[in-house]
Amino acid sequence: MSMSAVEPGTRLANRFRLEDRVTEFGGATLWKAIDEILARPVAVHTFSPEFPRVNEVVLAARAASRLTDPRLTQVFDAADQDGTAYVVSEWVSGESLLDLLTSRPIEPERGAALVAEAAEALAHAHAAGLTHLHLTPSRLVWTSGGTVKLLGVAVDAAILGLSSDDPVREDTEGLGRLLYAALTGHWPGDMDCGLPPAPLDYGRLCTPRQVTAGVPGYLDAITCRVLLQEPRRGQPPLTTPAEVAEALSEVPRPTPAPISSAPPSLNLRSEAPDTMDPWPTPSPQPPAQGPQHGQRSQTGPASKVLLTIIVLLVMAAVGLGAWTVGKNLGNTPPVAHNSSAGPTSSAPSAKPVTVKPVSATGFDPLGDDKEENPEYASAAIDGKSSTDWHTDTYKSAELGRLKSGVGLILDMGKPIQVSNVTLSLPNADGASVELRVGDAADLSSLKSVAKNENASGSVTLTPSKAVTGQYVLVWFTRLPYFEGKYRGTIYDILVHSPASA
């Protein structure tokens, strides 16, 4: 069978039936097909008789078929026989990074998580001697199964006839372009990939934080280290996909969607993805290392039963105590009051009141950009335990030995007397925090008035003597363990002042 006879209904290898023509380019055609043996859709590339690189494509596909990383498109078959050449691979369903960026804004860390997965998968391919050379937002997919797929390793370059004198650098910069796009919605490359071009500042590429508000400082720095090949935050440029993967390893990853009970043929589709919710919300699971970002540890059924029993016992004890006190009071004879008696005990002191801050911000006076995730700061004073402010993630508890501390600073609007500050922290040992108070948002002006060397859970920091100031700083000097790295987190913070203040 010659390639000119390939049309809908054609069967390849007595197994793969071509159904719909998806795209055609340069003599290569992508089809939606059916694997009649396994009853599932597959993607099939066929090639016209004039296509000049059939042998290179088949060899590249066979090499890619040996890759084992599940985030790389799986190649099922590749052949060139009897005048017919084809490549069969899995048919991926979901939304590409391009779809996500053009349909709705995505959070910076979620976009970066996609690129982090791609970097790890590409590092695996490089270790096997294979490269991509054509990393664009349409080749990175968040699948309907809640996983990440990087399409076209080795095969795309062979089909397009791409080569590079330095393929490692080319793929590393490609990851940098994907990260830039994920953070800004702009494309920092020459080709038209469906996104607006990245803005320039006097001929120089603007950094992500210059383009889009709310990009975390550490992601901005990583992008510059990859794409601009510049050292940032005291760290060198990133020159390989493995280095990019390591730098992005601190990014929180999306949780895969629950496994569907539907047959596989309903879970797979094409490289022209459907529209769907790209970040499904799974049923909460109890984390192994304390609360995850923005979450509390969940309570299991046994714990709920135990808690119910305890509550009932406490209620019974309170009721019995009240009945006993009432009975004794009823049987006690009245006591005559002597007006000449000495003075009675003074009334108990008034309970401190909570003072709401005017604003909050991440405070990093020793860092390059002087900020630490300021976009999350308001979550620590919104009264919701389901939200949080957190530091960047560091490689050691001592903040990667990059600085002596980092924290969250509150502006109270005017000087107030601070009775104490109550923090809600993760249940993870290892955090050291200081309470600092002063009249200026400057580290040298903020005096340390209380400390806790192993803070976790609910923590109250109480000054040893009266202290007044407009600015209240919770200063982390040591961070607790978090998902293989170290990060400080504050779910809630309450500032208390004397009622008369």
TrEMBL record:
SUPFAM superfamilies: Galactose-binding domain-like, Protein kinase-like (PK-like). The keyword Lipid metabolism does not apply. Residues 247-300, 336-371 are annotated as: Disordered. Transmembrane segments: none annotated. It comes from the Bacteria. Residues 339-352 have a biased composition (Low complexity). Keywords: Receptor. Residues 16-306 form the Protein kinase domain. Gene3D superfamilies: Galactose-binding domain-like, Phosphorylase Kinase, domain 1, Transferase(Phosphotransferase) domain 1. Residues 279-289 have a biased composition (Pro residues). GO terms for molecular function: ATP binding; protein kinase activity. The keyword Transport does not apply. This is Protein kinase domain-containing protein. It comes from Planotetraspora mira. The lineage of its organism: Bacteria, Bacillati, Actinomycetota, Actinomycetes, Streptosporangiales.
